[in-house]
């Protein structure tokens, strides 16, 4: 695996219709990911969240989990 490359993951989530009339609050966004080359020292430097369908806009989202993170479980509330 050559260095100095960027990989991007895009995902789409479909919401189910519900008859519940309660006011909707934004749930936390949870992510669990693994970097399969962890022994090589590969690190996740940035994790950016952009989600227009759930109405998370750029000002509501904490853009970066941390400057240098490692693979694992991250959760953020907006």
UniProtKB/TrEMBL annotation:
Alphabetical list of PROSITE patterns matching this protein: MHD
Q: Which residues are in the MHD domain? A: 1-77
Please give the superkingdom of this protein's source: Eukaryota
* Coiled-coil annotated spans: none
Q: Which SUPFAM superfamilies match?
A: Second domain of Mu2 adaptin subunit (ap50) of ap2 adaptor
Matches recorded under InterPro entries: AP2_Mu_C_sf (IPR036168), MHD (IPR028565)
What Gene3D superfamilies does the database record attribute to this sequence?
Mu homology domain, subdomain B (2.60.40.1170)
- What is the protein name stated in its UniProt record? MHD domain-containing protein
What is the source species?
Euroglyphus maynei (Mayne's house dust mite)
